[in-house]
């Protein structure tokens, strides 16, 4: 799900899990936030100004 919402930040790997792309840092924050909130395993952590963002 995250790879479809933020294709510049995530890619679906052959193993079936998502990987983070080097360009993730350049993606709009709101796009990353939407992708992180959609993660079915809740394994994405975002930081803004060196502080963890509360996703839920």
What does it look like?
With 56 residues, the protein is an alpha+beta fold. It has a single domain (2-52), classed as Alpha-Beta Plaits. The chain contains two helices and four strands. A two-stranded antiparallel ribbon has the order 1-2. The chain has a two-stranded antiparallel sheet with strand order 3-4. It is globular. The model has no long low-confidence stretch (mean pLDDT 92).
How is this fold's topology laid out?
Layout lengths: L1 H4 L4 E3 L5 E3 L8 H10 L8 E2 L2 E2 L4
Antiparallel strand pairs: 1-2, 3-4
Over all CA atoms, what is the radius of gyration? 11 Å
Q: Which class do the helix and strand fractions yield?
A: alpha+beta
Helix content, binned percent: 25-40%
What's the structural domain tally?
Answer: 1
Write down the overall mean pLDDT: 92
Shape: globular
Q: Which CATH architecture is right? A: 2-Layer Sandwich
What's the end-to-end separation, in Å? 17 Å
| Continuous helix count | 2
Number of strands: 4
Poorly predicted tracts of residues? none
In this structure, how is the largest beta sheet organized? Answer: 2 strands, antiparallel
Strand content: 15-25%
How do the SSEs run, as a string of H and E? Answer: HEEHEE
**In the CATH scheme, what's the topology name?**
Alpha-Beta Plaits
CATH class: Alpha Beta
Walk across the major sheet and give the strand order. 1-2
């Amino acid at each position: 799900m995250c790879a479809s919402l933020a294709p510049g930040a995530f890619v679906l790997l052959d193993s079936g899990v998502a990987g983070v792309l080097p360009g993730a840092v350049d993606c709009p924050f709101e796009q990353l936030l939407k992708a992180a909130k959609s993660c079915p395993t809740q394994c994405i952590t975002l930081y803004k100004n060196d502080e963890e963002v509360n996703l839920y």
